[in-house]
Design goal:
single chain; 204 residues; mainly alpha; 95% helix; 0% strand
């Protein structure tokens, strides 16, 4: 029933403004206060239901928009909170992995440092042993050379003494032989002289 009444009012409103414009001049409507009030009443009668309907619709739309905006804000807040939690979790996981890798590298560096220190100690010990062995070998070689030099000196001295004795003996033998040859020559000379003078040789 109300819908038909609104339609009738709408139809009348479509016809009434033209009729009013043709019959009444604008100056008369605006100059007469009673006519202005009547015009407001007519407008309220003709368009009041539509205005109120539009106001209800606008109010409902505004309420709906506000509700959707609030829901959107809540959704965005939840999504941002979820995103923040996800980012925080990822950052914590990455930080944990980095800390674990750093600790692993620190442990590896510590183990490598310990191994290098151990190796350095072994190398120093080996170098000390080689130095000691080299010095001992040098001392042994020097002692051997000294002993051999002493032995060779003794042998050389002994051989020199033997050769000197043999040389002295040979010199004495040569001197004796020379003396015998001189005596023999003197004897031959005297014999020659005696034979030449027919004298008998003297007894030696």
């Amino acid at each position: 029933m109300s819908r038909h009444t609104d339609l009738d009012r709408t139809r009348r409103s479509e016809r009434t403004p033209a009729t009013l414009a043709e019959t009444d001049p604008e100056g008369a409507l605006t100059d007469d206060p009673a006519a202005g009030n009547n015009l407001d009443k007519i407008r309220d009668i003709l368009f009041g239901a539509q205005v109120r309907d539009h106001e209800r619709r606008f109010t409902k739309l505004e309420t709906q928009l506000l509700a959707e905006a609030a829901q959107l804000r809540n959704d965005l807040k939840e999504r941002f909170a979820s995103l923040e939690q996800y980012i925080r979790t990822e950052v914590e996981q990455v930080t944990g992995r980095l800390n674990a890798e750093e600790q692993g590298r620190a442990s590896a560096v510590g183990a490598l440092t310990a191994e290098l220190q151990t190796l350095a100690g072994v190398l120093q010990q080996t170098a000390a042993q080689l130095r000691e062995q080299s010095e001992q070998a040098h001392r042994d070689l020097r002692n051997q050379l000294h002993n051999q030099a002493t032995s060779l000196t003794g042998e050389f001295t002994q051989q020199q003494a033997t050769m000197s004795a043999a040389l002295d003996q040979a010199v004495q033998q040569l001197a004796h032989q020379k003396t015998d040859r001189t005596a023999l020559a003197t004897l031959f000379q005297e014999l020659s002289q005696r034979l030449s003078h027919d004298q008998p040789p003297q007894q030696a």
